TrEMBL record, chains A, B:
Its EC number is 5.1.99.1. Belongs to the methylmalonyl-CoA epimerase family. Residues 4-134 form the VOC domain. It catalyses: (R)-methylmalonyl-CoA = (S)-methylmalonyl-CoA. This is methylmalonyl-CoA epimerase. It comes from the Bacteria. NCBIfam families: metmalonyl_epim (TIGR03081). It is an enzyme of class 5 (isomerase).
Length: 134, 134
């Protein structure tokens, strides 16, 4: 069921400083910041040959990464996103196996314009998993 | 400087249960457990089309992931490993930029038989970064 790793998301308290450190210190290609108010984050992508890293900074009062940054003030790895071919089939299979899908279980349109779902980290060994239909 | 994401490492308290959940629930290909006493971990690889996820369980009394699991008893994303072409050149460049390389700064032979170094998470927004020469 799991396909490619679409991205690894890292929450950071200061996006400009993190982007500069990936660009200048680590020598990676980093895109310009993109505000996604409907997702409560501003994002840059670190483009790597086989996948990408998303650096996320909270945007607005209801940011879904605010609690994570309150617990991890330096930042840290927030989630991993896997591609799936059929997100509704994936959801049904996961539910049947007893895994919890976050929210109301209906896919939302994610940062890349594709349907996404998140799985409960307690059901996957402390890792927040995003599934994205491609 | 950064090349491919070689792997994303996830520390788990129970490797057999985690491997089964990636295999049966998430439908991924998972290798057999490999004990790496010199690294203080037992590992399985979740093989994905573009990269891999390493699931790590502590092995022995001096496991380098024991403290992480004490803080995150459910498990969680532990580090991300990027490939570099020349690990000594990467180390020197990072040090010149003020980043801290863990240990004595001499690459060790990692789980894949290649030279590796780890960078201080405080210098990279809370993320533990491994560099592996390929």
């Amino acid at each position: 069921m799991l396909g490619r790793v679409n991205h690894v998301a890292i929450a950071v308290p200061d996006l400009a400083s993190a982007a500069e450190s990936y660009r200048a210190t680590l020598g990676a290609t980093v895109t310009s910041p993109q505000a996604l108010p409907e997702h409560g984050v501003t994002v840059v992508f670190v483009t790597l040959p086989n996948t990408k890293v998303e650096l996320l900074e909270p945007l607005g009062d209801q940011s879904p990464i605010a609690a994570f940054l309150a617990k991890n003030p330096d930042g840290g790895m927030h989630h991993i996103c896997y591609e799936v071919e059929d997100i509704l089939a994936a959801r049904d299979r996961l539910r049947q196996a007893g895994a919890r899908v976050l929210g109301d279980g209906n896919p939302k349109i994610g940062a890349h314009g594709k349907p996404v779902l998140f799985l409960h980290p307690k059901d996957f060994h402390g890792t927040l998993i995003e599934l994205e239909e491609v």
